[in-house]
TrEMBL record:
PANTHER family: EUKARYOTIC TRANSLATION INITIATION FACTOR 2-ALPHA KINASE EIF2-ALPHA KINASE -RELATED (PTHR11042). Pfam families: Pkinase. It comes from Oppiella nova. GO terms for cellular component: cytoplasm; nucleus. Belongs to the protein kinase superfamily. Ser/Thr protein kinase family. GCN2 subfamily. Transmembrane segments: none annotated. This is Protein kinase domain-containing protein. Keywords: ATP-binding, Kinase, Nucleotide-binding, Serine/threonine-protein kinase, Transferase.
Length: 171
């Protein structure tokens, strides 16, 4: 284990390096700390991850269970869109929202947005459809080469999910 990336509703995510020096992210879910219906959500997430093959979605590598923990190994993404947006003002030497974007900044922003839309379209076209439950800059992960979207899955839409600032008005 190299470092702890963060914690969420179902567990903690670690940045790890394997014997071949490949860096990946491993999510550790401790089953004794979550409700039975949440355990089913975790299993559904893993089943969905196995089926997803898109350049726009963080790639599933492996999963395994040890005692009362489930481990989910995923592709490592070094940045999130949230971090990029924080650095954007420094990189482009301007106050965000106060000055218009230059052509280069506009192109980069449009390309990131296009790839997010490609990802969402891909997930919605799967059978069964995968609905992103919390699409926000923190969950849009970026690699050096391309953009990936981290997602949580659901079998059906339920109310009360998502982050208030980023949720669709009709939800």
């Amino acid at each position: 284990m190299l470092s702890t990336i963060g914690s969420g509703g179902f567990g903690t995510v670690y940045r790890v390096k394997d014997k071949s020096n490949t860096i990946s992210a491993v999510k550790r879910v401790i089953f004794e700390l979550i409700e039975d219906n949440d355990k089913q959500k975790v299993y559904r997430e893993v089943k969905s991850l196995v089926k997803v093959e898109s350049e726009y979605v963080v790639q599933y590598i492996n999963s395994w269970r040890e005692t009362d923990c489930l481990y989910i190994q995923m592709e490592w993404c070094s940045e999130s869109l949230s971090n990029i947006l924080k650095l954007k003002a420094l990189v482009f030497d301007r106050n965000l929202g106060e000055e218009p974007m230059d052509l280069y900044e506009y192109y980069i922003s449009c390309e990131i947005f296009r790839e997010i839309l490609e990802c969402v379209q891909y997930l919605h076209e799967l059978n069964p459809q995968i609905i992103h439950m919390d699409l926000k800059p923190d969950n849009i992960l970026i690699t050096i080469h391309d953009k990936r979207v981290h997602f949580r899955t659901a079998n059906k839409h339920t109310s009360g999910v998502g982050t208030q600032r980023y949720i669709a008005p009709e939800a």
